[in-house]
Amino acid sequence: MVRLLQLELQKLLLNRTSKILIFVSFILPFCVILLSSIKINVFGLFTLELGELGVFNFPIIWHLTTFFASQFKFFFAIVVVSMIGNEYSNKTLKQNLIDGLSKKEFILSKFYAIAFFSLASTILIGLITLCIGLYYSSYTEFNIIFRQTDFLLAYFVKLLGFFSLCLFFGMLVKRSAFALAFLFILYLLEWIIFGIITWKFNVDIAEKIQNFFPLKSMYKLIDQPFQRIAMTKFPEKTAMAYDYAVHWYEIAIVLGWTALFVFLSFVLLKKRDL
């Protein structure tokens, strides 16, 4: 595993574009820190500072930061599809296979790189969140600080699943731009199917089925936190209540898709004439 990961990291770091995109992928999550410094001037009457409103209290901050950080995943998605496109355009895929790398090892090297960067991003977000929370949070008890850190697990699985999907599309079309376009097509397709099911049955059934779709299941791992923040400010508004927790079956669904995408990538490579 270490050998394959080192091989892939060497390829990525020797590519100038990949290095820039990887750098941006790790710098952008620091934008979460900017949230804590935002000040909103309300008609010159008073100033709202997000850091003083309690939105960075433990444990809700784990939900908030992982949700916002996950919005930056598209930058590393470009790296994933590019590393496949470059293999074909630079003929390095064929050369690797000639040099003794099996097709299985080739796909595993890509997956190990995806898992490595997903884990590194998760650790980074965890440290950023901990620092912001310790600075702003009113709660400093150990059990409260580390409550709901399962959002970090959800964040890792979300990245792993999304990048594995990008890996599959990269293997399918062999071109970075087309692979990214397929993500948009899949997004539209999921909503079209949702609309058809709603028309044939009802919204409740359609939503339950939609939660098993690839992109939707990844999104459901970390639901939007805005409604939850509003609930803390207006606890009497029971109509705002919703299920924002991380569930084991949601993680299982995304891990299932992840395994399928990696397997299909291997099948494509195995059957393709190089």
Automatic annotation (TrEMBL):
Signal peptide span: none
Stretches that traverse the bilayer: 20-40, 60-84, 111-136, 151-170, 177-199, 248-269
Keywords, in A-Z order: Membrane, Transmembrane, Transmembrane helix
UniProt-recorded name of the protein: ABC transporter permease subunit
Annotated source species: Gaetbulibacter aestuarii
Lineage: Bacteria, Pseudomonadati, Bacteroidota, Flavobacteriia, Flavobacteriales
